[in-house]
Write a structure and sequence with these properties.
This protein has 666 residues and is of the alpha+beta class. It folds into 4 domains: 198 residues, Thrombin, subunit H; 78 residues, PDZ domain (Pdz3 Domain), CATH 2.30.42; 90 residues, Roll (Pdz3 Domain), CATH 2.30.42; 204 residues, Rossmann fold. It is 23% helix and 30% strand. Helix 12 links the parallel strand 33 and strand 34.
């Protein structure tokens, strides 16, 4: 027997032997181990019970986004004897008209919402109690260990006694170092209640959380799944004085963006430092590599997110970056918000190379199309010209040019060098904002001679099944018959309306468009043909990733398009997958009432397309969604469809595809 194998079985065997011995000893004393555990758990719950209150809300919204918000009792935790109670922001996402708190004595009191911690998704309530309240005792974070007992406590089923579920601490420093993780069953019944140790001390306050989203309902889909989160009570108490003053707390922002990449594989190199952000004002610039934040060493982007995650707006933090061999060491005051980023627009479409998506060309970037009345047109650039440099920086790929433009702002003038045949052009262009219209007919995107010269193998084409063993949903991809691996195609993720769509109709409608504009159509289907579920967002993402592994996909031309409920799903998918989706095209559906939309990302650009029917019941909601998007400086194309809602005509659908074909605009 080898030594590694011996090690693998001897430790469990010793554990079982020790457990049997302990059980035998306890049994001899007529006190089985299970009884001792039960007594300890009951004692822990009884110790924290005087600090656990029942909360009821009255009135407010029925839905938050697509989530039906319940109005049943929830839980809170007393953190100050003067009547201050902490709870989960999820319990108040519906913005209730009134709040009632049942104290451990059984007395009901009206409560006021004092402030909100928008980083850790907590709220602070205040009741004017005429009886003493017992604040919870915090377990020191330094003593918390993975694997220790953890008991999730709520007070919802019966006001007289708390309810509890038992588990362990399964991880620390989760959700970018903001929370503990437990496998105890967590649900809206105990959100806002305590997670306690076996001694009844409070480890943290239970909240739903997600690493990708920041709204109050983020992560609620994981309830009762064995994945639950709790904000350490020590953190809550440390920030309690500010919250008692009525000050909302916000995540601290540096105002920088990073190259789209694997968080765990890439260094934290700044792609864009927003001119209005704290990092830019402190002297950090594009290309600087952040190596330390708040005394924590940073080697990868993920480590930076962990270092920044616990920090609040208004806090001063020491940031160290490398600029070549130079060390930049600054103190930065983190911001609550950064003014929305506005993508600068030069006004050209680049030719697309045959071969790798970003093949460099020493002669520069060939111009496929110049937008009429754009900065490029006003500067005298024409289709066929080759852009060689901008603001003195040499560019050989379209990605280079986008990267050089990212730190600039509309109305800023830049110097361009271009080639027209053998002639060198030196021009100045005053940048503009992205257009909100569909371009006219576009010339070919590839050089015909390069296409003719290449000889490449072709993967499967036509209607190709996409099989994902972990999902029951059906899924297909419509791949043009002339697809070739050396020509990266765009991807349209089509989310059907209730009732689904027939394969023959899908092929008849989309095949000529996919062939004309070099797109693959991905058509995932909902498990229930009559409706989509928000939980199916993960399935759609996995399907898109599967297509990208098999086919050559142009990352600048990935869009999600839907009709009616499929359009609602398209919005949700787009704003929660900004690393993938460059455009959302919604037909006959307003923007969902998301509690928070993501800010425009300089690296992961997004644009929106929507239809508007003037006499539709949803027209006001559609217009409100357009205003919300434009307020954040997203470009929005609005396609009028007449008085009543309908799907696009053949001409309108061709226009949509033409717009999607232009998503790589610069």
């Amino acid at each position: 027997m080898s030594r590694p194998y011996y090690k693998s079985w001897i430790a469990p065997l010793l554990f079982v032997w020790a457990l049997c011995l302990l059980t035998t000893q306890v049994g001899a004393a007529d006190e089985p181990l299970a009884e001792l555990e039960e007594q300890a758990i009951k004692a822990a719950v009884e110790r924290v019970a005087p600090s656990v209150v029942r909360i009821e809300t009255v009135g407010g919204l029925e839905r938050v986004g697509e989530l039906l918000v319940g109005t049943g009792p929830t839980t809170g935790l007393v953190v100050d004897s003067e009547g201050y109670i902490i709870s989960s922001a999820f319990n108040f996402a519906q913005k209730p008209d009134s709040i009632l708190v049942t104290l451990p004595s059984g007395k009901r009191q009206a409560a006021q919402l004092v402030s909100t911690d928008r980083s850790r998704l907590l709220v602070l309530l205040k009741v004017e109690a005429d009886e003493p309240l017992t604040p919870a005792e915090a377990a020191p974070q330094s003593e918390v260990r993975v694997g220790q007992w953890a008991i999730a406590v709520g007070r919802t089923f019966e006001a007289e006694r708390p309810n509890a579920s038992v588990g362990i601490i399964s991880a620390k420093d989760r959700i970018w170092s903001k929370s503990l993780q437990t496998d105890a069953k967590i649900s809206p019944n105990n959100y806002g209640g305590p997670l306690v140790d076996i001694r009844g001390r409070v480890l943290g306050v239970l909240v739903p959380m997600s690493p990708q989203e920041t709204e109050e309902v983020a992560g609620v889909e994981w309830y009762d799944s064995g994945i639950g989160f709790a904000v350490p009570l020590e953190t809550v108490l440390r920030n309690l004085p500010r919250m008692k003053e009525g000050k909302d707390l916000h995540t601290g922002l540096l105002g920088v963006s990073f190259k789209a990449s694997d968080l765990n594989a890439k260094v934290a190199e700044i792609a864009v430092a927003a001119p209005t952000g704290p990092a830019f004002k402190a002297g950090f610039r594009k290309g600087d590599r952040i190596v330390e934040v708040a005394g924590q060493a940073v080697e990868r982007h993920a480590q930076l997110k962990h270092a920044m995650g616990p920090l609040y707006a208004g806090e001063n933090v020491r940031v160290v970056a490398l600029r070549g061999d130079e060390r930049i060491d600054r103190e930065v005051t983190l911001a609550e918000k950064i003014d929305p980023y506005v993508t600068p627009f030069l006004g050209i479409l680049p030719m697309r190379p045959v071969g790798k998506a970003e093949d460099a060309d020493a002669k520069g970037i060939a111009i496929r199309y110049v937008y009429p009345d754009s900065p490029a047109a006003k500067a005298g650039l024409q289709a066929g010209d080759r852009v060689q440099s901008i603001a003195g920086a040499k560019v050989t790929t379209a990605a280079d040019l986008r990267e050089q433009l990212q730190p600039l702002t509309p109305d800023e003038s830049v110097a361009l060098e271009a080639l027209r045949g053998d002639q060198t052009l030196l021009v100045n262009a005053t940048l503009a904002t992205l257009p909100e219209s569909v371009p006219g007919e576009l010339p070919p995107a590839h050089d015909s001679a390069a296409l003719a010269a290449a000889d490449v193998a072709k993967p499967a084409t036509g209607l190709v099944p996409i099989k994902l063993p972990e999902f029951e949903n059906a899924c297909q991809a419509l791949v043009p018959d002339d697809f070739r691996a050396d020509v990266p195609h765009g991807l349209v993720i089509w989310l059907h309306a209730p009732g689904g769509s027939k394969d023959e109709e899908l092929v008849a409608l989309w095949k000529p468009l996919c062939e004309k504009y070099d797109f693959i159509l991905l058509a995932p289907k909902s498990a229930d043909a009559t409706r989509w579920q928000p939980t199916e967002l993960g399935f759609v993402r996995r399907a898109a990733d599967a297509v990208a592994k098999t086919y050559s996909i142009d990352p600048t031309r990935i869009a999600v398009h839907g009709h009616q409920a499929g359009a609602t799903m398209a919005y949700l998918f787009g704003v929660t997958n900004i690393d993938l989706v460059r455009a959302v095209a919604a037909v006959d559906s307003p923007l969902p009432r998301l509690s928070q939309l993501p800010q425009p990302d300089p690296v992961n650009r997004q644009a929106f397309y929507t239809t508007l029917a003037t006499k539709s019941e949803q027209s006001a909601a559609v217009e409100a969604g357009i205003e919300r998007l434009r307020a954040l400086k997203y470009p929005v194309v609005v396609q009028g469809v007449g008085e009543q809602a309908r799907y696009l005509t053949a001409e309108e659908l061709d226009g949509l595809m033409r717009w999607l074909d232009s998503l790589d605009r610069i």
